[in-house]
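User: tokens in, sequence out, please.
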């Protein structure tokens, strides 16, 4: 894997709580019974308790150039009362923001600096260690995916090799468990994995039905949904295909897409600020122009919604 990526977790908590919330403690001993504490927020009005701040003078310097504009990312990190890291979706999204949406060659180092600036030890070093494992996982993931000769961009409803995707999925899951650990895998990927399992099972059943093969003779038949409206049926097939495409998308592809998103959003911010401060527009006109701008710059509804939520 190119140098662009630059570069034992034990969880003790109630299983039902960890699985239902996607939040796990990153530590080697049982966490304190106290509740989780968010790290320091960006504004004084939304500041966390001082005990959760890690801001020694040596770490507070001007070399940190990347900072997430999304407050959910900036304020989503969390630690326990004993200052151990809590592995949650916000941490995953933050790491992806640095590694997949930034073009800087030192983005991995910037991520580590950010984590050490925002978290106090030992949570800061636990987060840095996890980030390093994740960088290594990204490289191994793409190498393993390339060996399967699967390409998300070339995947269509007519050429899905569901057995090859199943083989890749098993290899990927084993890689995650080995490099990230079972608990991190559960916290970050459980929902996606559940959706992928359903998509694979349904696709296999549909293929068997089309071929007239009793593929699941020894298993309960997977309940394949059908719609009287052919348009709705096509939309569902596209939804399944999207899940399969997501499963075979490389981090390299995601990085390319993420950096393009960041460029489009930067352009959107500039133009949106001009529209927002135009005294000749009333609220209705301003909103209409902002909506038109999002439609012009962002190809998907999901990207338009994200830009709208981030503002302005």
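Assistant: Sequence out:
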């Amino acid at each position: 894997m190119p140098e662009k990526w630059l570069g034992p977790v034990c969880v003790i908590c109630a299983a039902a709580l960890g699985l239902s919330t996607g939040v796990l403690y990153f530590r080697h001993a049982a966490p304190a019974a106290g509740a989780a504490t968010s790290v320091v927020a960006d504004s004084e009005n939304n500041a966390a308790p001082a005990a959760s701040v890690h801001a020694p003078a040596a770490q507070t310097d001007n070399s940190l150039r990347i900072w997430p504009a999304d407050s959910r990312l900036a304020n989503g990190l969390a630690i326990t009362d004993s200052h151990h890291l809590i592995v949650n979706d916000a941490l995953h999204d933050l790491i992806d923001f640095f590694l997949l949406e930034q073009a800087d060659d030192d983005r991995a180092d910037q991520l580590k600096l950010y984590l050490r600036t925002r978290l106090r030890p030992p949570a800061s070093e636990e987060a840095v260690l996890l980030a390093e494992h994740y960088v290594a996982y990204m490289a191994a993931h793409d190498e393993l995916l390339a060996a399967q000769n699967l390409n998300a961009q070339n995947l269509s409803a007519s050429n899905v090799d569901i057995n090859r995707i199943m083989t890749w999925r098993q290899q990927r899951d084993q890689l995650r468990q080995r490099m990230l650990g079972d608990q991190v895998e559960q916290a970050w990927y459980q929902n996606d994995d559940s959706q992928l399992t359903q998509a694979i099972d349904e696709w296999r059943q549909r293929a068997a039905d089309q071929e007239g093969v009793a593929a699941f003779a020894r298993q309960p038949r997977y309940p394949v949904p059908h719609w009287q409206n052919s348009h709705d049926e096509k939309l569902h097939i596209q939804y399944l295909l999207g899940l399969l495409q997501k499963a075979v998308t490389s981090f390299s592809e995601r990085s390319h897409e993420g950096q393009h998103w960041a460029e489009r959003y930067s352009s959107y911010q500039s133009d949106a600020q001009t529209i927002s401060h135009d005294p000749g527009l009333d609220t209705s006109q301003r909103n209409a122009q902002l909506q038109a701008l999002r439609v012009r710059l962002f190809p998907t509804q999901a990207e338009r919604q994200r830009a709208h939520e981030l503002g302005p």
